[in-house]
Amino acid sequence: MKITALHLHPIAVADPPLRSSYGLHAPYAIRTIVEIETDEGIRGVSETYGGERPLAALRAAEPKLIGRDVFQLTRLWMEFEAQAAEAGGDRSQTWMVPGENPIDQHARTFAAIEFASLDAIGKALNKPVCDLLGGRARDEVAFSAYLFYKHAGGGGLGGDEREDEYGEGLTPEAMVRQAKDFIARYGFREIKLKGGVLDPEVEIETIRALRREFGPAVPLRIDPNCAWSVDTSVKVGEALVEELSNGGYLEDPCATIEGMGEVRRRLLAKGIDTPQASNVAVTAFPHIPMAWKHDAVQIVLSDPHYWGGMRAQQQLDHFCHVFGMGVSMHSNNHLGVSLMAMTHAAAACPHLTYACDTHYPWQTARDEVVAGGRIPFVNGCVRIPSKPGLGVELDYDQLARLKERYEALPYRKRDDEAEMRKRVDPNWKRILPRW
Ligand SMILES: [Mg+2]
Description:
single chain; Enolase-like, domain 1; binds magnesium ion
C-alpha cells in the first residue's frame, strides 16, 4: 500500500488561559492534522505539533513519502536518522522542552507519519492500531485529571470565545473545585497538578487540600516544570512526603538530570523515597542511562509524538523496565486524533502503569476534528474501540473551520512567555529557578 499524497492541515483550537512555569496559554493552541492518501484508496490520519517549524519539516519529508509503502517504515526511520546525524547536534543536551528541541525534530516528524501509516494499515486489515503493535496489554487506558492554575476565561477570541467551564483557579480551594468538576465529568482516579506557578507554599497547600478532599486512594502528582531550586525541591518533597505517596510523584521539580539526582539523594538521606518523574530532563533515549546513573528519574513520561512514534514508545517502555524505571505519559494540548494515538500506544506498553496525562478536557466539542464528536472517558479511561486503525475519522467541515482560525492567527509558534506579558504582567520573564 503506497503513499500517493500527503495533506497537512494546520489548525487552531481554543484554549483557556492556563498557567505554567513557561507562562500563559494563548487563546488558541496550534496543531497540525496530517493525512496520507494511498493507492488503495485508504487514508491514514494523525495529529502533531502545530506551527511553522513542524509544518516545514513535514513538507520537507514529502518527497521521501510519495511512493513509500506504509508497511516499510524502518528504512524511512534510517533516512531520518542519517539526516539528523548529518545536521549534527548534541543529543545529551537536556535544555529544550519536549516538542521544540531541533535535535528531535526528525523523531516528531517520523511519529506523525508512523501514526498515519498505522492508521491506514489498520483500516486495510480491519484491525485496531494497538493490535498491529503486537497486541494490547489492556483494553482501556487510564488518564489523570490534569489540573492547571488558571485565569478567568475559556479561550478563543473576538466573538469566538468559549464558555469558562471551570472559572478562575488561583487558590487551593478553587483547585479542589476544579478537581471535583473534572472527576464528576470524566471519572478520573488520579490527579496531576501543573505547578511552578504560585509560591511553593501555596502549591503545597493545594496538594494537601486535594489529599484532604480525595484521600490516599487518589494518587497525586505535581509538575512545576523546573521552577524550583534543588533546595526548594527538597523542601517540597519533605512537606509532601505523605501526599505524594501511594502512586504519586514529583515531576521535574528542578532543572537537569544532575539537579534531580541531587534532590533524590537529599530526600533519600531523610528517608523519603518519593519517586521523581520527568519529561523535561529526559526526552530522548540517551538521557535514560544518564538519569539512571544519577538515580535522578524513577518514572519516565513517554510521549509517542516526540519519542519517535508508537513503536519507539514500546521500545522506551521496555528500555525503562530494563533500567528499573516506571513509565507514564506526557501530553500537550491535543484533540481526539492524538488522544487515540496516545491510547493505542499506551495500551500496547505493558509497563505503562500510571494514568497518562491529557489536556483533552481543556478543549471543547466546538474544536473537535473527529467525526461524531468528542472521545468519551468512562471512569477516567479511554477504551480501545473495535473500529479499525486509530478508530477515528475526520470531520472535514470542522477541519475547515479550525484551519480558517489558524489562518487568522497572528502567531505561528507557541510563546507562553509573550502571552503572559501581554495579558498578566508586562514585565514577566521565565526565570529558572524562580523559587
Ligand atoms: Mg511535565
